[in-house]
Design goal:
two-stranded antiparallel sheet; Serine Threonine Protein Phosphatase 5, Tetratricopeptide repeat; 215 residues; disordered N terminus; 10 helices; mainly alpha; 2 strands
């Protein structure tokens, strides 16, 4: 593939899609997850009201200051256990990421990984933040780590990694990742749209070459 096919709209359209795919942690031991535009049922955690409100607000997509404050208060709850701490850090990090607060988001995901390096969703969200920060090489490494650890929704991880590869000009790698995302989740809109764009750009490029005057 030619580098000339690299779309100029990457920094706006794909970057927004990557940010919208942040994984939100629900209750520990439940295994439920949700995405910014795909909220699911919330199971409350423990008896602390701040923990419950934090979880409910994040899954609902609330990015207000109040959500950050409730998650922070929940993290300061004296009786919090380790699994709950990790889930709350992920939820607060996702909220920061949605607000465009990349450094605090990265700090929360890094803390999760420091406490438990096998938290696949923390690695994936960390990769999404790094895409927003245009640190595409480290983003690819983080997302690849998440895939190796068995992230719960791998099609979205492949999509995010494809976006990072595309930003670096690795169009073949990006195409392969978008294709893998669609194989895992057939008829999934974001991956279908990117593959259609690749096909359209290829046709346009070929038409340009064929229309060039012969020397």
């Amino acid at each position: 593939m030619s580098r000339a096919w690299l779309p100029r709209r990457f920094s706006v359209a794909i970057q927004r899609a990557v940010a919208a795919m942040a994984i939100v942690a629900a209750a520990p031991f439940v295994g439920a997850t949700a995405f910014a535009q795909d909220p699911r049922a919330v199971t409350t955690i423990g008896t602390d009201a701040n923990i419950r409100r934090c979880s409910e607000a994040v899954v609902a997509g609330d990015t207000s200051d109040r959500t950050v404050e409730e998650c922070t208060r929940a993290l300061n709850y004296r009786r919090i256990d380790r699994p709950t701490q990790l889930q709350l850090l992920i939820n607060r990090g996702v909220t920061h990421m949605r607000r465009g607060e990349n450094e605090p988001a990265l700090a929360d995901f890094d803390e999760v990984i420091r406490l438990d390096r096998r938290q696949a969703e923390a690695h994936l969200n960390r990769g999404a933040v790094l895409v927003q920060m245009r640190q595409h090489g480290p983003a690819i490494a983080a997302i690849t780590e998440a895939l190796g650890l068995g992230v719960r929704e791998p099609h979205k991880a492949y999509f995010n990694r494809g976006a990072a590869r595309e930003a670096l000009g690795d169009l073949r790698g990006a195409y392969e990742d978008y294709s893998t995302a669609l194989e895992i989740q057939p008829d999934w809109g974001p991956a279908s749209a990117e593959l259609a764009r690749f096909a359209r750009n290829r046709r346009d490029h070929l038409a340009t070459v064929l229309n060039e005057p012969t020397p």
